Amino acid sequence: MRKLLQYLLEQGVATQKSICPPLDDDAQGLPTLTASACSGSSCSACQEACPTEAISVAGSESNEARVSLDLGCCIGCGLCIETCPTGTIAENRSTQTAASRREDLVLTNETTELTARSIEERPTIFANSLHARVVSTGCSSCDLEIGAAFNPIFDMERFGVHVVASPRYADALMVTGPVGRGMQEALKRCYEAMAQPRLVMAVGTCAISGGVHKGGYAEANGADSILPVNVYVPGCPPHPWSIIHGVLVAQGKSTVGPAVLRTK
After folding, report:
1. Are the beta carbons of 197 and 131 closer than 8 angstroms?
2. Which residues in the chain are classed under CATH 3.30.70.3270?
3. pLDDT score at 61
4. With 0-12 CB in 10 A as exposed, 13-18 as middle and 19+ as buried, what is 84?
5. What count of other Cβ atoms lies within 10 Å of the Cβ of residue 53?
6. Phi then psi for 242, rounded to 5 degrees?
7. Residue 200 CB neighbours (<10 A)
8. N or C: which end of the chain has fewer CB within 10 A?
9. pTM
């Protein structure tokens, strides 16, 4: 027993103290827009490379080219970053990527200043305690990241968050996967079983827009067309810190959203 106690004491504290720090070197971040001017439709390399049509390019002149990047459709493959010849699209190392409005995930290069998508800090009734029911409708990669968010390194429980087995005990519904036709009715029933007030979090690109599955025969276009979504967490899958950031947004504790350097 003494040896075991000594071993545990020597391990130290595994939990990261810094909340939502930048990504580690071995992790790949979502794309963002930079101050570099785009070549416009004469190039469109990023648009052609994107597998989910998350990028659109308009305008033929560098000073008039308009780039639109929808993080809600982005799967983080990095092809746009690799193919962009002007450096207009670069990697974003931030884990603070969640947003409370769908339109805040659509980045454009129409302004000239570095802006943070501000989220109004308004502590909610769930500020100190949030019970979540996870409904998986996809490949389970996002579910694995949600599970990782509760391990000793990230320790989401320190924010008063707990996963429950029944929607009747849940304050928030964490939806993962593209919500295909076969899961839509089950998801609605799960939501209706929750007491009010209640929240819905779309965790991952599939849950936000359907990702690579959107527009198909299975009607897998995300949770937005099925339920009212309160928080969007982009990524395929999102990093555990990004999921925690989404929870903090849901609790009204975060004033930071996806940052983008946008240029005219």
Report:
1. no
2. 31-119
3. 66
4. buried
5. 12
6. -65, -35
7. 23
8. N
9. 0.89
Tell whether domain 130-254 is in CATH 3.40.50.12280: yes
Residues of the chain with CATH 3.40.50.12280: 130-254
Number of Cβ atoms within 10 Å of the Cβ of 259: 16
CA dist 173 and 192 (Å) reads 11
Nearest in space to 262 (alpha carbons), one of 60, 67, 62, 93: 67
Tokens, residue 181: 């036709």
Phi, psi of 61 (to 5 degrees): -100, 150
Using one digit for the tens of pLDDT, what is the confidence trace for 33-57? 998 888 888 889 999 999 999 999 9
Give mean pLDDT, residues 214-229: 94
- Cα three-residue angle 202-206-208, rounded to 5 degrees: 40
Cα distance between residue 45 and residue 56, in whole Å: 10
Instruction: At 149, list the tokens.
Output: 């968010």
**Chosen CATH of 31-119 out of 2.40.50.140, 3.30.9.10, 3.30.70.3270, 3.90.280.10:** 3.30.70.3270
CA proximity to 160, closest of 120, 128, 126, 208: 128
Beta strands in 86-159 (DSSP E): 89-91, 106-108, 114-116, 130-136
